[in-house]
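Colleagues,

For the teaching module next term, I've prepared a clean inverse folding example: a structure given as tokens, and then the sequence designed for it. I'd like students to try predicting residues themselves before seeing the answer, so please don't circulate the second half yet.
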């Protein structure tokens, strides 16, 4: 593998419940954005697909959606439904590892939030306006804003830097 082509692949989910969005506060020990607020998500691992039946002769489909379902359950203890693609981005972590993020939005299906995995210390269900009052990682507010705009009957559009 060529190091310049290797990336972590991450999927995140903006989760909607009764007009509010789930945000989680990252733990202080996290490498990326410690103590900042974000949405649930995490890294793709080989275990997410390699021991499962392939969907075609040589590939697994829907891996981003399955990853985000797993991560939401691990991090928040809830299930989601109607997973839809929102946007994608890339960044380089403080430890110099490049990351590709597939951002989705979905609707709360079942369960009450229970922070299980030690990567987050608090959670909140917030409106778009309330989200502005939190120290969100860069870009997350604009992603929530995209989804909020879409849920009001508009096209999803593309991510745009906030004012």
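(Answer key — instructors only)
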């Amino acid at each position: 593998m060529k190091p310049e082509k290797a990336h972590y692949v991450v999927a995140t989910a903006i989760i909607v419940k009764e007009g509010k969005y789930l945000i989680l506060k990252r733990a202080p020990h996290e490498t990326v954005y410690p103590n900042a607020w974000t949405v649930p998500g995490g890294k793709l691992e080989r275990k997410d697909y390699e021991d499962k039946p392939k969907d075609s002769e040589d590939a697994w489909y829907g891996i981003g959606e399955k990853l985000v379902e797993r991560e939401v359950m691990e991090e928040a203890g809830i299930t989601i439904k109607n997973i839809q693609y929102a946007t994608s981005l890339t960044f380089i972590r403080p430890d110099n590892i490049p990351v590709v993020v597939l951002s989705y939005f979905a609707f709360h299906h079942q369960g009450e939030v229970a922070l299980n995995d030690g990567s987050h210390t608090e959670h909140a269900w917030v409106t778009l306006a309330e989200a502005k009052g939190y120290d969100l990682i860069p870009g997350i507010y604009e992603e929530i804003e995209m989804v909020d705009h879409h849920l009001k009957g508009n096209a999803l559009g593309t991510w745009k830097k906030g004012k």
